[in-house]
Amino acid sequence: MSTLALICTRKGLFQLSHDLTLSAPDFAGVPVSMALASANNPTWYAALNHGHFGVKLHRSDNAGKSWQEVAAPHYPKHEDASQGDSLELIWSMEFARSDNDQILWAGTIPGGLFYSDNGARNWQLNQPLWQHKTRQQWFGGGFDHAGIHSICIQPGKPDLVRVGVSCAGVWQTEDGGQNWQNKAQGMRAAFMPPDKQFDPNIQDPHRMVQCPADPRHLWVQHHNGIFKSSDSSESWQEIENKQPSAFGFAVAVHPEDPLCAWFVPGIKDECRMPVDGKLVVTRTRDGGETFETLDQGLPTEFSGDLIYRHGLDINSNGEQLLMGSTTGNLWISENQGDSWQCLSNYLPPIYAVRFLK
Amino acid sequence: MAHIIFTENLRRHINCPEQHVDGRTLAEVFNNLFSSQQALKHYILDDQERLRRHMLISIDGKKIEDPVYLSDPVRPDSEIYIIQALSGG
User: Fold this and answer.
1) Does B65 contact A at CB distance below 8 Å?
2) What is the C-alpha separation between A200 and A146, in angstroms, rounded?
3) How confident is the model at residue A256 (pLDDT cuts 50, 70, 90)?
4) What is the DSSP string of chain B?
5) I need a surface site. Which of A135, A154, A203, B60 has the fewest CB within 10 A?
6) Whether the predicted pLDDT of B75 surpasses 60
């Protein structure tokens, strides 16, 4: 049975088959921070965070049957070793060209964006963006250092790339990474001093997604709430008064309908758990004017499940959603979130779920 | 030549049998060790070639004092243990 999705957890990488069964984990016992695979190519990637032994990258050339270690991104050597940066986490990975599984972007903590054009045999740090990071003193959100968690590549225009950075807002290049501009105008960080709240360079987008069919439309689940752009990230509008809360980490957008998006609300800093212990998904079909609360099939008893920023994904036709939690619960919806089926209550904490698209 | 012994946990991920390597300091020993085993280097040292934060090295029973420049002296009959600091769950 072929693989429907990859589930990255604190204790390994699980493959979810189309019959909704889960494999035994690859990399058992090792945290897997991110994976990248497509349905059309046999070359897959898995980013491991060994902790003691550092971050490693593995590649499979046979659709996950076996893996080999390949080069992980490396930060350039500083003239004084006590001062230089070192890779802490591969937080995001995307194919830079939809038709080539050897050309990759990788977003990392402490804030570097890396590019490989040879299947991760080696990597180049994108220096132009790194210079912005160095000058502007990006800072960490939930980690000690800043990180790139979202990479949106414009369909049909691979040189137009946007990245989401915690904490430095949204950055865009139109020339494949030679020049970058901040594109977080309109985002608001209520937790900052008043004169800094609208500073684009300090914004904390938790996750950014782009509608493939109409890429002018992007959604961000931000630390401060939900933001939407309908003009190719030239401006962002805050979606206010959302119930049960505007806080969360994850967002998914329908691949063909830019007005349709899903979120998983939670209580922010003081708790980081579902509001009133009740796990729900919210869905808008009208660009954020209204939201439905979806809970059929989700826990009816108290839930401490938190859905991390990569813990929600939508498949390529927009019907199936996958959701994995910090408590190791995994759910699938086959009807755009109207109802959910629990696939496991016993997985390790889930960092990311990804359909093969 | 100094005798290097690796934690079993590291041997689970990469081939690193006990071995004997030349060098008057830990940095020199590592230069010689990694010249033929480049992949092993990244399991022990970070991108700046400092000792990884949660690794621990002892030379002749004493924890090294310089995890950044690895200048701790090594004798020809030294015993070097490369182990991990215990953490996590």
Assistant:
1) no
2) 15
3) very high
4) -EEEEE-HHHHTTS----EEE--SBHHHHHHHHHHS-HHHHHHHB-TTSPBPTTEEEEETTEE-S-TTT---B--TT-EEEEEE-----
5) A135
6) yes
Best residue of B12, B15, B40, B42 to probe chain A, by most A CBs closer than 10 Å: B42
The 10s digit of each residue's pLDDT in A108-135 is: 999 999 999 999 999 999 999 999 987 7
Instruction: Please indicate if any CB of chain A lies within 8 Å of the CB of B41.
Output: no
Q: In terms of CA atoms, which chain B residue is nearest residue A58? A: B13
pTM: 0.96
Most A CBs within 10 A among B47, B54, B57, hence the mutation to make, goes to B47
Q: Which residues in chain B have Cβ-Cβ distances shorter than 8 Å to A58?
A: none
Mean local confidence (pLDDT), A162-179 = 97
Predicted ipTM?
0.92
What tens digit of pLDDT does each residue of A272-288 get? 889 999 999 999 999 99
Give the tokens for residue A304. 């401490």
* CA diameter of chain A: 57
Residue type, B5: I
State how far the Cα of A338 lies from the Cα of A354, in Å rounded to an integer. Answer: 20
Question: Which residues of A lie closer than 8 Å to B, measured between beta carbons?
Answer: 50-54, 56, 69, 72, 74-78, 81-87
Give the separation between CA A6 and CA A46, rounded to whole angstroms: 10
User: CA-CA distance, A188 to A197, in Å (whole number)?
Assistant: 5
Q: Residues A188-235: pLDDT tens digits?
A: 999 899 999 999 999 999 999 999 999 999 999 999 999 999 999 999
As given in the structure block, the two tokens for residue A30 are 């090792």
Kindly report the nearest CA distance between residue B14 and chain A, in angstroms. 10
Is B52 part of the contact surface with chain A (CB cutoff 8 Å)?
yes
Interface A:B, Cβ pairs < 8 A? 55
Give kind and range of the element (H or E) at residue A151.
strand A147-153
d(CA A354, CA A222): 21
Chain A touched by B84 (CB under 8 Å): yes
